[in-house]
């Protein structure tokens, strides 16, 4: 159509009508052309892609010509106006006609020739030609460049903001061709590269293993790149010279290219940095060699000077010894000469005196004979009265002589007593105490004989270098102790007319006030025993049983452990997890025990050992043999444990042969639970005291040894200390009684005995805060070296707490020397270390000393183990007193008939528990010790059960029996020689680390810490009293037969904290888990809480797994991670986000997206491995859903919740009113205890028992009447009636 318009414009006679006719003739049959309806209309239409458009043909040709007159061009050329010429500069400079800036202006070149004018007129372009020329240049520009178009759309016709006309905008998009462009672009391939350009840009994505650009064509290399990167992404094509891609393909290729370029850049950086640091390392190495050279030279010169000085000293020593030897020889010769001379002179003097004596005797006998003759002559003439007077005079002279001799003997005895030192006094009290190192007496325990057979390396720790725990804050006001005199305390707190000075009579009431009647009776007993210990009262004569009408027995509190075995004293670590082969038993055979039920936590390996005879003469000189005798003749232990008095005896076969075995775990002290949880054992029998001070026999006559018999000093000490350990309120009473007997004591023997007793008590139990300052003031006036010694013992006891056992023989030795005790601790690698301890030393302090000595870095989990005979148990690495365990061993030896000072106990340093994040590569010394421990356990049958299972899995029984033992040994030896560890020549450290890791992963129960607990609340379990085993895998609840009641992994534990339920309860721990919340009580609940808290905090800080608590949709921000509730997040630890600021970087495990996660929206799981699906399902459940599942499981198993037993006393402490004060009772007796509302009473009450009824007069009166009716009607009590108002 444009060509027709140009053609018609060139005809002189062309008009708009002829143009319309030609267009109708040429395009009338076309689809996109719309002709006019009749010959009179001048409009025609065209169907564009945006719609139909109608044009009017009037003025088409005139507008198309748009000719500019040549006269105007000449006029402009001749103009002197610079601005006008500059505007038409382009038109005037060209001889041909060019288009000006204005598209409607046609400028012709100025020419005077008519021919040139006519030719120029023919060459005048039309608007259509200009448009086609402009379109051609545009297309050429587009082919060279990559254009980007910006389309401006008018939102409304009113030019108002915030107003959007949808139809107007759609129409503009359609007319501008944007819709069609989008459709075309979507259907086509907008990205086009030549093969060479594509290969140059994306060469980094080409895998030369699939296509080598040196051998293959560029087209094939491009196709290989697209196939590897765009394998599953839509359609892409290759042409003859180009490759056609879509936008998504180009984006993917660019992303992969950037990723590969980053990796290659990192590789280049790594190589360059390696080159840089290697060069720096070589420079530093050369410098280090120079430093080493000079340092070694200096060290060698210094060592030479030391050796030179040593040789000089050695020469001096040799010369001094030679001179000493010569002097000794001369001195011996002089002594011999003196002896001969003195002997000669003595014999000569003796002969002279003998001759003189013989002469004197002869004259004396002659005189006596003559005197006798004269007396006989005189008596013949004397009367009877004179004879009697003479006889009386002779008797008087004899009595006077006897009195003089008696006084002389007393003076000699007193002088001899004053010459005895305090060390001799200790020896006289406790017999002879030899100086010895603890842990080296007697024969080694079963399974540890190899440590005694081979020569061990003994090392010592200097006492001055011992790093004790942080001391208690020492007060700077030591001068103020003068205000806390013992006399002042006695005047304030002593009862009645009791004084603070020494007496030798029995007390009628305790020195201090006690509410409990048992404490009152116990105070009187302790006073009697203290007087006997000090020698202020004589020992009672040994009586025949039943001969006395008033016999005094030892209290039941102190004889409950008379016949107990070692398995009742040790902890839960003694386990039946390691059965041993038959071995040589202990030198001391254990007597047949009492009837009790066997338990997997009681006697370790008691079923696999056979008794064997012990030779009469042992090769080991340290072996101590227990003297034979009947068990009845052996002395029982004089110390008690309150835990054992309420336990039931378990049935067992009588007279069963002993089966001592060895193990490394403690037996359980848990007995079978009674079906009736309300059953309460009878309280122990206590002695009563008459007003005259004599002890009256208690209930249960004939039970236990009597106190009316001679007791040894050690037995008296055990009774005194035992009362202090059992009864907390009696400790100040004991200290006051001892201090009273030391004040103004003129008897030297009793005085020193009192200070010895006080020093021993200070190492076992501390006083209360009320009395400690007075006791410190009293200790300052101790004789000799007792003042600093007792002060240090008191400080250590206050630091580490009360002991649980009486003093051991080593402590008596320390009292004698007033120095720390030396005990020997064996390491599993054969070394033996001697280290100083005192009465208050804990296992934590010993573990710290050993770790510092052997330079152990990974100290956690190492514990002190005690071995005696066939028993081995762990003391842990906490607050347990080491001397308590040694005292237990001595009591067991005494129970078997031996002597305490020769107890064959040993101390070992072993690994008890692993951390979940244990790494053997961190500390080679730790790995070496654990490896030696495992090898020792394998050799001596500690892991026999698991080894048998491993052998049975590898070899069946039929194949094992088919070959002989020698054949199997040969096969095993050849297989070991061909094994990977031998053939690969792997380093010994790595092999040991692998073996330790294997034992840790396969036998976690052998490396566990055990706690005995009682369940106060929580989901129902078959047992309420059980054992909690904690190891690196998690928490396990076990019964006494090692049956697993419940297993919990660390991700299932949500919280741990210590609690206290009520006023009378012991320490407890609350364990919050996904399977329910448990409240567990026990003596070691605090230690269990600390261990769990440490494990959970360590796992949480090292964990890489977290669970979302809520949903977060952050698609608008690409830096934030979107997730749903309950999804697993993998934590990425880097420096980009700080957890302290509330953000961490994580990856969604389900979507694999990475981004920032707020810490309040997640909970970090305490685990180092990916949590299981079961744990994730429990976490995603709500608390009510988990509770319903637990209740459903309880209904299915038939278990019911058992309530913790409670007493009326505990109920009264919380809900009863306060006891009333009776003035009459207080006046009559200062020792009267307050009213016990929960105990039996034969008198009516004046106020109700419950606190909530006190303020209600009506209900109070009815409650009192009801109590009176109960007494009168049902209890049949004789009551006195009161008038109630």
TrEMBL record:
* PROSITE patterns, A to Z: IQ, MYOSIN_MOTOR, MYTH4, SH3
Where does the record place the region Actin-binding? 135-157
| Molecular function in Gene Ontology | actin binding; ATP binding; cytoskeletal motor activity
Key words, A-Z: Actin-binding, ATP-binding, Motor protein, Myosin, Nucleotide-binding, SH3 domain
Does the keyword ATP-binding belong to this entry?
Answer: yes
Gene Ontology terms: cellular component? myosin complex
The answer on whether this UniProt entry bears the keyword Phosphoprotein reads no
Domain of life (superkingdom): Eukaryota
Family matches, as SMART domains: B41, IQ, MYSc, MyTH4
Where would I find the MyTH4 domain in this sequence?
Answer: 502-816
The record's section on InterPro entries has: Band_41_domain, FERM/acyl-CoA-bd_prot_sf, IQ_motif_EF-hand-BS, Kinesin_motor_dom_sf, Myosin_head_motor_dom-like, MyoVII_FERM_C1, MyTH4_dom, MyTH4_dom_sf
**Residue ranges occupied by any SH3 domain in the UniProt entry:** 1101-1167
Q: Name one Pfam family in it.
A: MyTH4
The chain positions of domain Myosin motor read: 1-258
Q: Where is this region: Disordered?
A: 577-709
Entry similarity comment: Belongs to the TRAFAC class myosin-kinesin ATPase superfamily. Myosin family.
Name assigned to this protein:
Unconventional myosin-VIIa
Protein source organism: Dissostichus eleginoides
- Lineage of this protein's species? Eukaryota, Metazoa, Chordata, Craniata, Vertebrata
């Amino acid at each position: 159509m444009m060509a027709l318009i140009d053609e018609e414009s060139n005809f002189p006679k062309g008009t708009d009508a002829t143009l319309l006719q030609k267009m109708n003739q040429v395009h009338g049959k076309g689809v996109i052309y719309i002709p006019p309806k009749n010959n009179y209309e001048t409009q025609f239409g065209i169907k564009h892609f945006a719609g139909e458009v109608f044009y009017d043909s009037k003025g088409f040709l005139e507008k198309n010509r748009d000719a500019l007159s040549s006269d105007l061009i000449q006029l402009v050329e001749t103009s002197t106006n610079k601005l006008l010429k500059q505007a038409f500069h382009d038109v005037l400079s060209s001889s041909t006609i060019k288009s000006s800036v204005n598209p409607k202006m046609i400028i012709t070149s100025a020419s005077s020739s008519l021919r040139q004018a006519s030719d120029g007129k023919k060459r005048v372009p039309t608007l259509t030609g200009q448009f086609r020329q402009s379109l051609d240049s545009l297309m050429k520009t587009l082919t060279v460049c990559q254009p980007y178009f910006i389309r401006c759309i008018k939102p409304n016709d009113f030019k108002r903001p915030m107003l959007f006309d949808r139809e107007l905008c759609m129409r503009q998009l359609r007319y501008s061709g944007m819709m069609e462009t989008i459709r075309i672009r979507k259907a086509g391939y907008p990205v086009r590269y030549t093969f060479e350009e594509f290969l140059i840009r994306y060469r980094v994505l080409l895998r030369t293993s699939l296509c080598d650009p040196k051998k293959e064509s560029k087209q094939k290399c491009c196709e290989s790149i697209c196939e590897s990167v765009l394998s599953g992404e839509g359609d892409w094509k290759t042409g003859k010279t180009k490759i056609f891609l879509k936008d998504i393909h180009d984006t993917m290729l660019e992303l992969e290219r950037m990723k590969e370029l980053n990796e290659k850049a990192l590789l280049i950086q790594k190589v360059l940095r390696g080159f840089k640091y290697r060069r720096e390392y070589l420079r530093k190495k050369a410098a280090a060699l120079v430093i080493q050279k000079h340092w070694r030279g200096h060290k060698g010169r210094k060592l030479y000077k030391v050796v030179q000085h040593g040789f000089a000293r050695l020469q001096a020593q040799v010369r001094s010894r030679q001179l000493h030897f010569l002097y000794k020889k001369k001195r011996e010769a002089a002594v011999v000469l003196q002896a001969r001379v003195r002997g000669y002179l003595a014999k000569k003097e003796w002969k002279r005196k003998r001759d003189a004596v013989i002469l004197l005797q002869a004259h004396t006998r002659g005189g006596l004979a003559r005197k006798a003759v004269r007396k006989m002559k005189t008596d013949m003439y004397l009367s009877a009265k004179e004879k009697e007077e003479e006889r009386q005079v002779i008797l008087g002279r004899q009595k006077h002589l006897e009195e003089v001799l008696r006084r002389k003997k007393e003076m000699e005895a007193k002088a001899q007593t004053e010459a005895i030192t305090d060390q001799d006094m200790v020896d006289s009290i406790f017999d002879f105490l030899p100086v010895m190192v603890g842990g080296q007496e007697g024969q080694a325990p079963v399974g540890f004989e190899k440590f005694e057979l081979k020569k061990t390396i003994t090392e010592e720790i200097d006492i001055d270098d011992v790093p004790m725990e942080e001391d208690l804050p020492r007060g700077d006001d030591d001068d103020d102790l003068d205000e806390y005199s013992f006399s002042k305390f006695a005047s304030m707190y002593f009862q009645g007319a009791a004084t603070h000075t020494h007496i030798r009579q029995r007390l009628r009431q305790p020195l201090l006030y006690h509410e409990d009647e048992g404490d009152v009776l116990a105070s009187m007993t302790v006073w009697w025993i203290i007087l006997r210990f000090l020698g202020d009262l004589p020992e009672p004569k040994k009586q025949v049983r039943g001969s006395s009408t008033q016999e005094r027995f030892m209290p039941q509190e102190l004889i409950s452990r008379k016949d107990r075995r070692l398995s009742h004293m040790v902890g839960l670590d003694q386990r039946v997890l390691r059965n041993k082969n038959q071995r040589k038993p202990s030198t001391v055979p254990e007597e047949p025990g009492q009837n009790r039920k066997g338990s997997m936590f009681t006697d370790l390996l008691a079923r696999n050992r056979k008794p064997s005879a012990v030779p009469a003469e042992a090769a080991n000189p340290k072996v101590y043999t227990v003297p034979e005798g009947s068990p009845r003749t052996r002395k029982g232990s004089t110390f008690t444990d309150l835990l054992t008095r309420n336990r039931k005896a378990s049935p067992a076969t009588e007279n069963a042969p002993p089966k001592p075995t060895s193990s490394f775990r403690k037996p359980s002290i848990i007995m079978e639970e009674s079906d009736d949880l309300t059953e309460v054992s009878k309280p122990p029998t206590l002695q009563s005291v008459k007003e005259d001070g004599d002890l009256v026999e208690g209930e249960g006559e004939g039970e236990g040894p009597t106190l009316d018999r001679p007791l040894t000093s050690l037995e008296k000490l055990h009774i005194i200390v035992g009362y202090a350990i059992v009864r907390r309120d009696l400790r100040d009473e004991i200290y006051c009684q001892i201090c009273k007997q030391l004040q103004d004591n003129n008897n030297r023997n009793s005085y020193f005995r009192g200070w010895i007793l006080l020093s021993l008590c200070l190492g076992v139990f501390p006083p209360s805060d009320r009395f400690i300052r007075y006791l410190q003031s009293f200790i300052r006036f101790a004789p000799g070296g007792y003042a600093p010694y007792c002060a240090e013992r008191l400080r250590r006891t206050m630091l580490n707490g009360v002991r649980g056992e009486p003093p051991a023989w080593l402590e008596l030795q320390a009292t004698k020397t007033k120095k720390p005790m030396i005990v020997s601790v064996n390491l599993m690698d054969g070394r033996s270390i001697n280290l100083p301890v005192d009465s208050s030393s804990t296992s934590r302090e010993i573990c710290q000393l050993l770790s510092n000595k052997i330079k152990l870095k990974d100290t956690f989990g190492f514990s002190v183990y005690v071995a005696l005979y066939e028993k081995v148990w762990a003391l842990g690495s906490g607050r347990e007193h080491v001397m308590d365990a040694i005292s237990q061993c001595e009591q067991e030896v005494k129970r078997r008939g031996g002597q305490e000072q020769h107890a064959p106990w040993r101390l070992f340093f072993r690994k008890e528990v692993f951390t979940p994040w244990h790494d053997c590569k961190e500390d080679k010394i730790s790995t070496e010790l654990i490896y030696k421990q495992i090898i020792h356990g394998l050799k001596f049958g500690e892991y026999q059960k698991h080894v048998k299972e491993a052998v049975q899995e590898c070899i069946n029984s039929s194949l094992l029996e088919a070959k002989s033992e020698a054949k199997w040994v040969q096969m095993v030896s050849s297989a070991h020689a061909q094994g990977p560890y031998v053939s690969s020549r792997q380093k010994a450290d790595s092999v040991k680390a692998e073996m330790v890791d294997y034992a840790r992963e396969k036998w976690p129960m052998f490396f566990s810490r055990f706690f005995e607990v009682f369940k106060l609340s929580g989901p129902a379990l078959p047992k309420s009293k059980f054992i909690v085993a904690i190891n690196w895998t998690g928490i396990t609840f076990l019964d006494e037969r090692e049956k697993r009641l419940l297993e919990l992994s660390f991700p299932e534990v949500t919280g741990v904290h210590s609690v206290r339920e009520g006023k009378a309860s012991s320490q407890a721990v609350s364990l919050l888990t996904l399977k329910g919340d448990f409240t567990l009580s026990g003596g070691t609940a605090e230690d269990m809480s600390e261990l769990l808290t440490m494990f959970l905090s360590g796992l949480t800080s090292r964990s890489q797994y977290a669970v979302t608590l809520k949903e977060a949709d952050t698609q608008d921000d690409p830096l934030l991670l979107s997730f749903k509730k309950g999804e697993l997040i993998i934590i990425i630890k880097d420096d980009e986000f700080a957890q302290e600021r509330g953000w961490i970087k994580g990856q969604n495990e389900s979507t694999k997206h990475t981004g920032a996660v707020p810490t309040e929206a997640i909970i970090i799981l305490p685990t180092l491995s990916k949590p299981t699906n079961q744990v994730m399902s429990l976490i995603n459940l709500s608390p009510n859903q988990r509770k319903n599942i637990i209740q459903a499981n309880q209904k299915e198993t038939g278990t019911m919740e058992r309530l913790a037993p409670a007493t009326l006393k505990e109920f009264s402490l919380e809900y009863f009113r306060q006891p009333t004060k009776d003035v009459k009772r207080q006046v009559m007796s200062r020792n009267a205890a307050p009213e016990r509302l929960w105990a039996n009473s034969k008198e009516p009450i004046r106020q109700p028992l419950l606190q909530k009824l006190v303020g209600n007069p009506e209900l109070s009166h009815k409650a009192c009447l009801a109590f009176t009716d109960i007494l009168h009607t049902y209890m049949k009590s004789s009551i006195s009636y009161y008038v109630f108002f």
